[in-house]
């Protein structure tokens, strides 16, 4: 499973890219708003920092506007993936932008049927929002399992499942087990995947014993 980071914070992105764990970046209007900077500058800078796909979301809600904004965003860099919402106009825009050979990420997906429409519209990525479904007392991961099955049943589909709205390390593990192609993860959770209390405890006792020997490897 590939890792994208879910942030528009360029310093976080640079640091994680340098660690070699990043396959791409996802942003959304809320994340770009947090930077306080113009979207074109933010997306351009991120696209220069990493080679993988960088999702940039349209804010128009009707077909024509989505396509116009999508073309503009796609023109920023070759690795931009235009994000459109899982609405009727969004699926139409997905088809139009895919036909122009732009990468498209269909976002705000909460059902397997939305994912089915996205794949038929030629989406590069489908983003089911696991955490937001869990927030409602539903099983977000079940939607990932359903989509995996549906996509595996039709070999003509090439859309990748991008598990989104990931809130915990458990979500990351479950998404990988469920067969998601990618998980987009907030920076703190991505770093948290390395942490285990037994690793920290074990390291502490190894170093205490080593200290008593007076040896140094270098
Ligand atoms: C995905 O592309 C979205 O930006 C993101 O995963 C949304 O996550 P949230 O529900 O934590 O806001």
According to CATH, the homologous superfamily is Aldolase class I
What is the count of β-strands?
8
Strand order of the largest sheet: 1-2-3-4-5-6-7-8
Q: Any idea what the radius of gyration is?
A: 20 Å
* Number of DSSP helical runs: 11
The CATH class, by name, is Alpha Beta
* Shape estimate: globular
Structural class: alpha/beta
Stretches where pLDDT falls below 50 for ≥5 residues? none
The amount of helix comes to 40-55%
Draw up the topology in text:
Layout: E1 2-6, H1 10-18, E2 24-26, H2 29-35, H3 39-49, E3 54-57, H4 63-74, E4 80-85, H5 88-99, E5 103-109, H6 112-120, E6 125-128, H7 130-135, H8 140-153, E7 160-163, H9 169-178, E8 182-185, H10 187-192, H11 197-213
Helix pairs in contact: 1-3, 4-5, 6-8, 8-9
Structure write-up:
With 218 residues, the protein is α/β, with parallel strands linked by helices. It has one domain: TIM Barrel, CATH 3.20.20.70. It is built from eleven helices and eight strands. It has an eight-stranded parallel barrel with strand order 1-2-3-4-5-6-7-8, surrounded by six helices. Strand 4, helix 5 and strand 5 form a beta-alpha-beta unit. Helix 1 runs parallel beside helix 3 and helix 8 runs parallel beside helix 9. The longest helix has 17 residues. It is globular. The structure holds erythose-4-phosphate. Erythose-4-phosphate (E4P) binds next to helix 7.
Task: Summarize the structure in short.
This protein has 218 residues and is an alpha/beta fold.
Keywords:
218 residues, alpha/beta, TIM Barrel, 11 helices, binds erythose-4-phosphate
